[in-house]
Amino acid sequence: MVLAFWIEIKRPEATDYVALHKTCTIFSVKLNALAVLKAKNASEYVATREQLRIPHGKNQGPQRDRPIVFMMHGLTGCSNSFVELGPKYALGFNFADAGYDVWIGNARGVGNSRRHISLNPDNRIDKYDFFEFTYEDIGLKDLPAMIDFALNHTGQSKIHYIGHSQGGTAFLVLNSMKPEYNDKFIAAHLLAGIGYMNYFPNSSLKRAAYFTNTIYTLARTSGIVEIYGPDWDESRSSAAMSKADNGQTARESLEDIIEELVSDADLIAGSSVKQFAHYGQNINDRKFRRWYYSPLTNLIVYGRSVPPEYDLSKVTVNTIMHYTIGDDLLDERDVISMANAMPNARVRRVAKDDFSHVDFVASSYVKYLVTEYILDDLLLLTYKVKQGKLNLKLLVQRVQFQQAQTKKNQPIAKRLKMEEE
């Protein structure tokens, strides 16, 4: 059973945007998405998940047949990732202005989806069950629930998908483990989507990954199951932490890892320790595979002593994998290997070598290096899906969006400066 609610937000002007972009929790005052799922213990697991919706852009009215673009954030991020840059540069607003019905998801455990019907994430007992999830749960449970709701609510049958970092991981997990969902996507654009980690480039995190299971065990035994939750700072001086040297060691290790991953504190919305540990296992094992328990438990859960790998040959969606040489969390060779494993995927290198992993949602340059390319690709695909019948309204809106930008032959830095004046 899946129930869902959403928040529709108007495209704010620069004068009132500050109220929108403060934190993800700015939206948590309204219940937005409620998914009722089945947990492994067969009891009902109910977690609230917000979806933000921008149904149309500036100076546009309601229109039921607008193509849907669904966006999914990365690890420690939330829906705010796609509006943080503001009306001029954020992907969420740019796509709405170009004529799309924009839906932005939230994974379980982030600030505005940190709820549960029967479990209290702030309770010292309940929190262990609440945060017992990895990126696989987001891909298998959260993502399909939100996508199905968007489709059912609008009466459409397919969507365009944009996933950043873990948002790409969740997409690959969903379509490899539930291949029937491939038919619900027109196309996907994965922005530094994480999957294969054979050539993981960050040496510091690679060293930390070697101790993944140790750090994870120390963290859980010390009561640390959530990263950057509402009481993260307060817990520094808690009695439990002061009594447990192991807990302090685990915490410091996790903080070091997060600093390597995210430099902008505004983009940190919280996550489970187990999410990080799952990536750590994959980095250390150089495999993109399911959670590793122990040989015996793996045998019970998977029917084999080692976890199965995610089969990317089952991901048949028309997919473009955007990557950058400046990304220290994703290697070009892994991106190419993933694309080769998928029957309808291709790669695209961002034309700015110092463009980083987080810049896909944090840099104004994304508008010119990534967004404009995706908009052109989506317009062509929408034309094809309609079997030769061009969506004139969408075309007009796309042209208007392009005309609103400074001419493309001008240097990006100059265009940014002109727009800010």
Q: Can you tell me about this structure?
A:
One of its GO terms (biological process) is lipid catabolic process. By secondary structure, this protein is an alpha/beta fold. It has a single domain, classed as Alpha/Beta hydrolase fold, catalytic domain (Rossmann fold). The protein has helices at residues 18-21, 91-97, 126-130, 135-154, 166-177, 203-209, 212-221, 239-243, 245-261, 273-285, 295-302, 332-341, 359-362, 366-385, 392-404, 412-420; strands spanning 2-4, 7-8, 33-38, 44-48, 52-54, 68-72, 101-104, 159-164, 185-191, 226-227, 271-272, 319-323, 345-349. The strands form three sheets. It has an eight-stranded mixed beta sheet, sandwiched between helices. Strands 1-3-4 form a three-stranded antiparallel beta sheet, with helices on one face. Helix 2 (91-97) links the parallel strand 6 and strand 7 (101-104). The chain starts with a strand and ends with a helix. 47% of the residues are buried. Mean pLDDT is 78; it is low at 1-7, 9-48, 234-244 and 417-421.
Strand content: 5-15%
The third-level CATH topology is: Rossmann fold
Mean pLDDT: 78
Domain tally = 1
At the first level of CATH, what is the class?
Alpha Beta
Largest sheet: 8 strands, mixed
- What would you call the quaternary organization? single chain
- The N- to C-terminal Cα distance equals 50 Å
Radius of gyration over all CA atoms, rounded: 21 Å
Overall 3D shape? globular
